[in-house]
Write a structure and sequence with these properties.
By secondary structure, the chain is α+β, with helices and mostly antiparallel strands. The chain contains 9 helices and 29 strands.
């Protein structure tokens, strides 16, 4: 454990770069120490529940990670882990203890999977959290068995932040992951499971986690050993349904409609800005990810009933879902905001080149700060520096890192970008030519 704490201190030193700018050093150190102590507490509590999931059959050499979520030995993992390991499993605890297990159901589309320990006993377990209530920028802790179980070390601990959700509700974080972590748990800062590691990418920003509330949505089928779905990565698929409404991502007691696009399904159904959707197709929805999840599982042309709060009145509407098309640029050349599900930024084909800046952004009291610059990156070559406050990108104000990321996602490799930044109290403009990732 001593080596883990040393690693955590190193990670903490790196994270300190992104702490609120202009804060007093004493305050920064206190926040850093408080976060370190919180992570130590979380890890000591959840460590016994983070298991390695391996095959017991010679013809299925696969392995991955998992986490126990009840005393009967129910395990959450990734669908591709149980697919690779088969039905007969060996579950390995961090202390080296081995017990028998079996795989249960799997949703290959979301990559959610279940397994369970088949030997009698009362097993250590962790509590599940609510991924729908997480916000972009929230701190999270990732654990797993990278490279498979090793008696020489316990599951490493990785600290990161949530930076986006995709159209299927999956979480993307800055937690470094490698092969073998698949199926392992993502914890919130209260030590509750909020995600399961899914696809692992060479670029840390592309690491994907199955959101726990997405997995809950399929709970009954998974626990009954049902397997369905198929892996798909093309988020530009035009078979995805749309509503034609932009929803408020911060909604907590029903999903508020921010705007309705003319001549699209929401407008035709009678949905109006300010309406709060309480039920979608008979299911109660309290948050944006919840309605996003329900929409993504329907087809264009489906007609769904809505229960909508409009002032003091509860209104029943019928919405015919439309067909998603590729986003368009408006008269000024900017990408139009995606309407569904929820106003998530357009995600290009993963195989297509992506614009590369090479700068990490963090929230600070003044707005958005550059917390780190990759050497030899377009940002570094143009003269951007860690500590710069980003005020505008191409003339558009950016209030937080999410707005900055959305502005950059509209661009292509080789595009020139104008950054209006504040450095040492002085405002200046720096032109950056984006690279290709």
């Amino acid at each position: 454990m001593k080596s883990f704490y040393c690693l955590l201190l190193v990670l903490g030193a790196l994270i300190a770069v992104g702490l609120p700018c202009r804060a007093e050093l004493a305050k920064e150190l206190k926040e850093l120490k408080d976060r370190e102590e919180k992570v130590k507490t979380i890890v000591s509590r959840v460590l016994p529940c983070v298991v390695s999931v391996t095959s017991s059959d010679d013809d299925k050499p696969g392995s991955g990670s998992g986490v126990i979520i009840n005393k009967e030995g129910l395990i959450l993992t990734a669908a591709h882990v149980t697919q690779a390991t088969g039905n007969n499993l060996t579950i390995i605890f961090p202390d080296g203890r081995r017990v028998k297990g079996t795989s249960l159901g799997a949703n290959r589309t979301t990559d959610a999977g279940m397994a369970r320990i088949t030997e009698p006993g009362e097993w250590p377990f962790v509590e599940m959290g609510n991924s729908d209530l997480l916000s972009l920028g929230d701190w999270v802790v990732a654990m797993g068995h990278p490279g498979g179980y090793s008696f020489e070390r316990q599951p490493p601990v990785r600290l990161g932040r949530i930076w986006r959700r995709d159209l299927d509700g999956a979480l993307f974080t800055s937690c470094p992951l490698i092969g073998g972590d698949s199926g392992g748990p993502l914890f919130d800062m209260d030590g509750r499971v909020v995600g399961i590691h899914s696809s692992i990418h060479g670029n840390v920003a592309m690491n994907r986690h199955v959101a726990i509330d997405t997995l809950r949505f399929d709970w009954d089928k998974l626990i009954k050993d049902q397997t369905w779905g198929k892996i798909t990565f093309n988020t530009t698929n035009e078979s995805r349904p749309i509503t034609g409404a932009v929803f408020d991502r911060e909604s907590r007691d029903g999903v508020k409609v921010k705007s309705v696009r003319e001549d699209l399904p929401a407008a035709k159904a009678g949905l109006k800005p300010g309406d709060v959707v309480k039920k979608f197709d008979g299911s109660e929805v309290a948050t944006w990810p919840a309605i996003q999840r329900l929409i993504s599982r329907r087809k264009p042309g489906d007609i769904v009933p809505l229960a909508v709060q409009r002032g003091d009145e509860l209104v029943d509407l019928k919405l015919e879902l439309g067909r998603r098309t590729l986003p368009r640029r408006d008269a000024e050349g900017k990408m139009e905001e995606e309407d569904n599900p929820g106003s998530e930024p357009f995600s290009p084909d993963p195989s297509a080149p992506r614009p590369y800046l090479g700068a990490a952004l963090e929230v600070c009291p003044e707005g958005t700060k550059i917390s780190d610059i990759s050497p030899e990156s377009p940002a570094a070559k143009a003269g951007l520096k860690a500590g710069d406050l980003v005020q505008q990108i191409n003339g558009t104000k950016v209030a937080n890192p999410t707005e900055a990321a959305n502005a950059l996602l509209d661009l292509k490799p080789e595009d020139a970008v104008s950054f209006s930044i504040q450095r040492d109290g002085q405002t200046q403009t720096i032109e950056v030519k984006l690279g290709k990732k």
